[in-house]
Amino acid sequence: MITKNEALELVKKHVRNKNLVNHMLAVSAIMKRIGEHFGEDADLWEAVGMLHDIDYEETGDDFTRHGLVSAEMVADHLPEEGLRAIRAHNEITGFKAESRMEVSLFAADALSGMIVAGALVRPTKLEGMKASSIRRRMKDKSFARNVSRENIMRCEEIGIPMNDFFTIGIEAMQSISDRIGL
Ligand SMILES: [Fe+2]
How far is the CA of 22 from the centre of ligand 1 (A)? Predict the structure, then answer.
């Protein structure tokens, strides 16, 4: 299986937008923590997070193919379980997030957006951020309105309470804060 650094190098070959690369780093860090939380293969979960949007610039406006193309592009690097999660993170493809890994990626994708938005309005960014900060932002519908609260809340489907999920996400992103400029 592909290592985290190999996955990052592969992403950089296909994705020019730095924010998008940072998004994948963030989702990767969150997925690793969720994998650890469940006692699963955290390296695999981390790689799935890193690679999930690798097709973003290639699929462009054709959002129906987003995720499907990523899965094709990394087919040699991940087991089928990981490829399924990547397809299902965009349910417009017709694939639905059902397994623990699939739902984790789906919810982590949205959570990372909420945490980035929350960090950007704090003077100290991610430093010192707590779950309560995200909980407050979640309730404010006008804040980061493009981030789906519903998608984030799917963490409960896999038995992770909302607050714990926020803490996992925040701590994961804090661990790479320098790298993602937050
Ligand atoms: Fe994503």
Answer: 10
User: How many angstroms separate the alpha carbon of residue 176 from the centre of ligand 1?
Assistant: 17
Task: Give SS3 for 173.
Answer: helix
Give the angle 159-53-122 at the CA atoms, nearest 5°. Answer: 70
**How far away, in angstroms, is 118 Cα from ligand 1 center?**
17
* Dihedral (CA of 12, 108, 59, 142) sign: negative
Report the amino acid identity of residue 7. A
Distance 173 CA to ligand 1 centre (A): 14
Q: pLDDT 10s per residue in the chain (182 long)?
A: 899 999 999 999 999 999 999 999 999 999 999 999 999 999 999 999 999 999 999 999 899 999 999 999 999 999 999 999 999 999 999 999 999 999 999 999 999 999 999 999 999 999 999 999 999 999 999 999 999 999 999 999 999 999 999 999 999 999 999 999 99
Domains located in the chain, CATH noted:
4-174 (1.10.3210)
Q: What is the pTM of this model?
A: 0.97
Question: Is 45 exposed, middle or buried, given 0-12, 13-18 or 19+ CB atoms closer than 10 A?
Answer: buried
C-alpha 52 to ligand 1 mean position (Å): 6
Distance 154 CA to ligand 1 centre (A): 15
